[in-house]
Amino acid sequence: MEELHCLRQPSAHIQLVLLDVMMPHLSGWDVLDARRLDPRLAVIPVILMTAGSDVQRKAATYEATHYLPEPLGIDLLVARVARYAVTSVAR
Is 86 part of any domain? Predict the structure, then answer.
């Protein structure tokens, strides 16, 4: 899947993916499928976001790290992102 090319770059240093299920070219489920099959992607945490119904169970099946229902509360989103964000200062 060419859409995931940037995640597979060794220099990408991706710490977290915020993923909406309803995307125009590649669904969030497709991304999670590709993540499970690729060791480079499997280690990247994914927070799945969607307004769809009965998605929490499916998100667990697809091994999403977390699921957040939309509309999102900013405090909850920031707390979830902060859990995986690593700050670094260039010296």
Answer: no
Structure tokens at 32: 């999670």
Claim: this prediction has a pTM higher than 0.85: no
**∠ CA 65-55-29 to the nearest 5 degrees?**
65
Q: Position 74: which residue type?
A: I
CA atoms within 13 A on the CB side of 71: 2
pLDDT 10s per residue in the chain (91 long)? 566 788 887 766 788 888 888 887 888 888 889 888 988 888 888 888 887 767 777 887 888 888 888 888 899 889 888 887 765 444 3
Within a domain: 24: yes
- Count of domains for the chain: 1
